[in-house]
Amino acid sequence: MQIVANRRRPYWARDEPMRLKLEAATAADAPTIAALRNATAADLTQRHGKGPWSGACTDQGVLFDLRNSQVYVARRRGRIIASLRLATKKPWAIDRSYFTPCERPLYLTSMVVAPELQRQGVGRLCLEAVKGIAQRWPADAIFLDAFDHAAAGAGEFYRKCGYREVGRATFRNAPLIYFELLVR
């Protein structure tokens, strides 16, 4: 799915609207996705200190995700600049009791945008594409969690993208905010 946004652009791309297409990742993408996840975690750790966002990812972890869910990537000029994971199976850190009851939720996890491209609309475009994917899946809702941290967490980002906060919990010492977007 291709989404186009006319948002404030970096100096090197202001003459063209940002275009983003999410496509299914392949096993060949695993090392690049792992590197992107690690670069994002390292950037958060450098800016906000060590926290639950500081974990490392391996190629094998991405290959596991590819076997058990749908992993998507966005490319710019052939380079993977964003990645996310959609699954029908509930992730371990999500307590379903906080969410609106539905029959076919999709769980959005492992969303990352290259640190140098954050705050330029890439994440918002990814979420718009995810909504379209969910509607075609078909799914009733998109459920996710974000770290409950004023600076390092993405809670405010998800709110601005139309996701509704449905609760807060702590899982393995990590404070989380649960969000949902109903797509029925």
Question: Would you write up a description of this structure?
Answer:
- With about 180 residues, this protein is an alpha+beta fold.
- It has one domain: Gcn5-related N-acetyltransferase (GNAT) (Aminopeptidase).
- About 25% of the residues lie in helices and about 35% in strands.
- It has four helices and eight strands.
- The protein has helices at about 30-50, 60-70, 120-135, 155-160; strands spanning about 1-5, 20-25, 70-75, 80-85, 105-115, 140-145, 165-170, 175-180.
- Strands 1-2-3-4-5-6-8-7 form an eight-stranded mixed beta sheet.
- It is globular, with a radius of gyration of 16 Å.
- The two termini are about 20 Å apart.
- About 35% of the residues are buried.
Instruction: Give the name of the CATH superfamily.
Output: Gcn5-related N-acetyltransferase (GNAT)
Radius of gyration: 16 Å
What CATH architecture do you see?
3-Layer(aba) Sandwich
Order of helices and strands: EEHHEEEHEHEE
Query: Considering DSSP H and I runs of 4 or more, what fraction of the residues is helical?
Result: 25-40%
- Our estimate of the beta-strand percent is 25-35%
